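Reviewer 2 asked us to include a model.

Predict the structure of this chain.
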Amino acid sequence: MNLEDYKTEDIEMVLEMKKAALNQIEGIEKAIWTDDINKATARIAQLYQTMQKVRVMKNRKHDEANLRFVEQEFKKRGIDISIVRIKKAD
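Predicted model (structure tokens):
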């Protein structure tokens, strides 16, 4: 995926997540140096959650691009298709 494929809000969100991840890494290093394993473990879990959010966002964009491609291919062949996206409610 190219940078142009992402919305400005998504890019800004990822940059904020990057800052949070860097802070978590710094906290992990401090916790390890002070032998606070519980704190280090908690920060590692938070870091993993942050990285998981970025991965989900990236996969969502990739899936959207694939759906657009499939829709265009059907339309080229004269098949009228509508793709309906259903989002889960929290």
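The first helix runs from residue 8 to 33. Residues 70 and 87 are 20 Å apart (CA to CA). We have added this to the supplementary material.
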